[in-house]
Task: structure prediction
Amino acid sequence: MSKRAVCIISGGMDSALAAQIAKEEGYEIIALHFNYGQRTEKKELESFRKIAEHLDANERYEIDLPFFEQIGASALTDRSIEVPTGGLGEGVPVTYVPFRNGIFLSIASAIAEKHGAEALFIGVVEEDSSGYPDCRESYIRKMQEAVNLGTKEETSIEIKMPLVALKKSQIVKRALELGVPLEYTWSCYRDEERACGICDSCRLRLRGFEEAGAVDPIDYH
Result:
C-alpha cells in the first residue's frame, strides 16, 4: 500500500511548497483546505483548488469553520480590526487567529486517521514568520505527541514541517526549484483581486522574492 500524507494547503506559498515536498517524498496527497471566514477566503479557496490539481491530489477536503468569525479577535476574521500595514512589528500581531493551527491540525489528524495516512504536512515557518505562537517547532512537536495519544493504537502520525527553519527567500528558491506554481499562490491578508503589497504577509513575500533574486508572478496594487 502506498504511503499517504494529509497536506494542509492554505493557498499560500509556504503550504504549497510543503505539499510539493510531500509529493517529492513519494506520498499520495490528501489535500486539505479550511474556509474560516478570513478576508481573502474566496481567493484562497481558488488558489487551493489550482494547487491541489497541480499536485494531482487523490483526495480533497474543503472544510468550513464558521466559528472563527464568531470568536473574532483577529484582523483576518473580524472586519472591525484593521489589517496592519505599517511594517513588521514586535510581538504577536493582530493578524494572529487564536489557536488556528491547533484546530487545523486536530481536524487534519482526524482525516489522517480515517485514511490511514502516516504523515501530516504543514507549512509553518518559525524563523522568518510574523511571530505567531502556533508556528513554533516546539509547539507542533507537542501537538504530534497529543495526536498520537488521542488516536487508535495502530495510528501513528508524524507532523512534518519541512520549512520551519527556512527564511522566506529560501522558500522562494526551493519552490522555484521544485516547480511549485507560485502564480497560483496567494499571501495577501487584505485583498482578493490584486495583492495590497503593504500588509505583513505581502511584505514578507515581496522581501523573500527580492532576496532570492526572483520576480513574484502575482499582481500587486
About this structure: The chain has one domain: 4-212.
